[in-house]
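PT: before anyone asks, these are the final sequences, not the draft ones from last week. 686 residues across everything. Please model them as a single complex and drop the result in this thread when it's through.
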Amino acid sequence: MELDQRKLQILRAIVDEYILSASPVGSKALSQSGMKWSSATIRNEMADLETLGYLAQPHTSAGRIPSEKAYRLYVDQMMQRAHLSDEESKLLYGYFREHVHGVDAVLRETAKALSEITHYTALVMMPDIGVNRLRHLQLIPLTTGKALAVVVTDAGVSQNTVIDVPEDIGPEELDRISKAITARFHDCRMSTVSSKLVREFGGELSARADFVESLLARLCESQSRDRRMVELSGATNMLEYPEYSDVSKARTFLATVEQKDDMYRMLKKASSMEFTVTIGSENEQEGFQDCSVVTASYRVNGTPVGSFGVIGPTRMDYARVLSILKNVQTNLGTVLQSFLKEE
Amino acid sequence: MELDQRKLQILRAIVDEYILSASPVGSKALSQSGMKWSSATIRNEMADLETLGYLAQPHTSAGRIPSEKAYRLYVDQMMQRAHLSDEESKLLYGYFREHVHGVDAVLRETAKALSEITHYTALVMMPDIGVNRLRHLQLIPLTTGKALAVVVTDAGVSQNTVIDVPEDIGPEELDRISKAITARFHDCRMSTVSSKLVREFGGELSARADFVESLLARLCESQSRDRRMVELSGATNMLEYPEYSDVSKARTFLATVEQKDDMYRMLKKASSMEFTVTIGSENEQEGFQDCSVVTASYRVNGTPVGSFGVIGPTRMDYARVLSILKNVQTNLGTVLQSFLKEE
DNA sequence: TTTTAGCACTCCGTTTCTTCGAGTGCTAAT
DNA sequence: ATTAGCACTCGAAGAAACGGAGTGCTAAAA
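LR: through. Structure below.
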């Protein structure tokens, strides 16, 4: 089952070539472009690689294309990290210098940067507010019976939610409750700010325990409801590739990528890993069976709070994409940190 | 230049048929389906209609397709408003019953409803905050030097902006300034809350005049910057139609529709009109030369604050779309009003 | 004068057939 | 173990043939 040096070399050449051209690679073409063996030898090796499951033939008299197994091997062992040109890193850096109006804006900009530079489709998950610490909560009266709850965390992320308020709580009391909650739960993780803690606490809060309880429940719930938790960019980039010259394929892809719930779940799952590469049928999503997803996580104060990634055809340029993700990860870390000068 | 009754009737039949089938309509097919004239007569009339510019022929031996001029006539004079089935109005009504967590959510839901029911692409403009009246402004400290400004208007719309704060203003003072501004400018139109008014006002505000001024400037500026002002839904619906079976056409369409700035401008312009129908080349956008855009405005307290619309191929079912928009306009009006019980 | 039947003609979309060439597997020579 | 040579395969692309829906025009019918 071990592949000897020559097989590896040939396989790598095939993958590299196929990533570039998207058309089956033949033995002759290979031997002419810098391979030191004759086409016949390569042909024999290709036959072997096919029986081993690394290559496939669209039809009898065509060249070979890499299988998912080949891509997996390529990603895990064979590829050498691409080197971004100075120009590219500068370009990338530029995206992060421009818009610094809050975490959300930066992440949106990140998605745009990723999709524009890779020419694939980019997804960025908004940070998971649960792991962050509460810095400020403010209730703003809207109408009788309704108020806007604004939560700000130490990561500089904010979240708005409309909540119901008992009629007998006036603006002044809302303000006092805001201050009380802020004081009590300052620097607690959002996920631990549960209703249990409320009862322990005396004063104004316990008098309004029911309200505060429902308020906190509402805050947690609203996070998962909010469909804006994923920023998508460059979905139409995929239409450039011959894989999607068929409109119906393009349609299924676009439909899948717009299922923000699924995308969020996917990224969330990936956020515990520094990097992930998911190839073709390894993907859970129906619509990504012919795609690969590459993700990277980002952290704030050392805690991973989210992830971002790129989706492309299985023959995507993994080396390049990974380099770009790594670069973005660094940039993003720096920028997000800059929102936290106080720490 | 006047079209007699028969010409009108024939033209209408052609438009109706072409909207359904998307393929050129021939004289024979027409005369067989309920027309009381022979194919020859119809043929002559069609030739006339062509010289008058209402019809076009893709090639010599094909049927006729309506020109933009024909659609214009159709929309302005000939079409009869479609009647939504009870089922459909109920379905539509359902969208508005479900999500009532704030104005933004409702409008997002509106976009989804529109695209799903029409099978075209829907756009909804978030309400223009400028014409609304300030109800509450709250500054929330983020880090030293930065704060989050949350603006709430009488329409229940909120807007978050990260602003810079001089280092010597502490959390308590931010709170006091918030209250002072809220008190001073309560019920003023956002667009009139300009820096000029600030100077007139004494007390805490004038002491921090520079800060308040820059704050207000920042708020105005940020509205136009914010790219989330347009909610898009069902962009991929267009790929269902034969007009977009060509991937490159699909690409240009999708690219255009994702230019949120342009879309916002388009809707903004349309928001002063109850309804608009823009056919083919009447559109300013490059990518909409083969599309039609139908919009309706929505109002809060009688003031038009935004608009929403549907984009489809020029042969879209105008009658149906207009009925749906009218229905949605009513529903939306009711729901938005319900956020304003106080008035 | 208006409408309609009839007819020759056009031209697109489809299908069928042919050709071309890149690629293969196998065998025999190196 | 490697490679040159050869017969074979099969899809992609082009060419030719066909069918049919539709037209414009003319002449007869209303």
